[in-house]
Amino acid sequence: MIDLIQNFLSENAPLKSNSKTVGFISVEGTPVEMPFTFINGVKPGKSILITGGVHGGEYPCIETAIQLANELEPASIKGTILIIHPVNPAAFLARMQYYGPYDGKNLNRVFPGKATGTVSERIAYQVHQFQQAADFYLDLHGGDIHEALVPFVIYSKLGSPEKSEEARLASALLGFPYVVGSVSENGSIGAAAKAGTPGFLAELGQCGRWSFAEVDQYKAAVLNVLRSFEVIPGEVQHSNVEFLDKMLVTTATAEGCWYPAVHLEQRVIKGEKLGEIRDFFGKVKAEYFADADGIVLYLVTSLAIMENDPLAAIGVSI
Ligand SMILES: [Zn+2]
């Protein structure tokens, strides 16, 4: 990790232990400059990658990453921590939902990226270099500008059984109520897991808002995970979480107006109605039903819906 970061520094002096370095990671062949903070601890230990703002409209995670970068001190750290805050500054400044402004792609759907691809693919490619150099990856997300959610964590099942289990147990230490497994290959944590780095994607906050209370909760959750890796000192807190097998996302088959029929954390049974899309005259265009028994983890809250947009996701019990 140190070698990779060294490439983005103007001076050639090697990064010393017990130091904090800030700067920008230039994504080759693009105008993108990702703000980063690299903390080289006072003793050897694990190498941790934390990203916030893969999606530009998810504010609590971005502020959490910024505050962690400011507050973590190398003198109390064993190992190294790279924080990117945010990964997608142009999407953040443009207040974009899901997508990036340069190519209209969802950054979390193009991992592991391409060195010679579009801007989003090149960002993913750069982040993937850091993922490969890390021992663990924390990807901080939240509900987007138009999404409501109950806090939950997704871990990738694509790694070895041991690393997948490490990711599952670390996910639970965030203390968010639900932990769900994923086999998605083109998301950030899937690409990391396939490259041998366990990790999770955390979801906290929603609907284009943020508060200091949410950021405090998010920071405390991340610090608890860092304690479990002995990267920072202190006692690890354990809380009761519900482990779920997988998440089923229902996507829109038509554009129009979206009317959910369920609420967050509602337990639904297979076949239960999740909502419907109507046209501008109030005529029902499509109805959506749960594909399995589960619990509603997120819901799109905007009236506006485009075809292929997510509508809702349910976590399915093990
Ligand atoms: Zn996100």
From TrEMBL:
Swiss-Prot/TrEMBL cofactor(s): Zn(2+)
CDD domains: M14_ASTE_ASPA-like
Annotated ranges, domain Succinylglutamate desuccinylase/Aspartoacylase catalytic: 44-227
Keyword list, A-Z: Hydrolase, Metal-binding, Zinc
Pfam families: AstE_AspA_cat (PF24827)
Calcium keyword on record: no
Domain of life (superkingdom): Bacteria
Protein name: Succinylglutamate desuccinylase/aspartoacylase family protein
Keyword Zinc tagged: yes
Gene3D superfamilies (UniProt xref): Zn peptidases
Cross-referenced PANTHER family: BLL3975 PROTEIN (PTHR37326)
InterPro entries with a match to the protein in the record: AstE_AspA_cat, N-alpha-Ac-DABA-like, N-alpha-Ac-DABA_deacetylase
Organism annotation: Algoriphagus pacificus
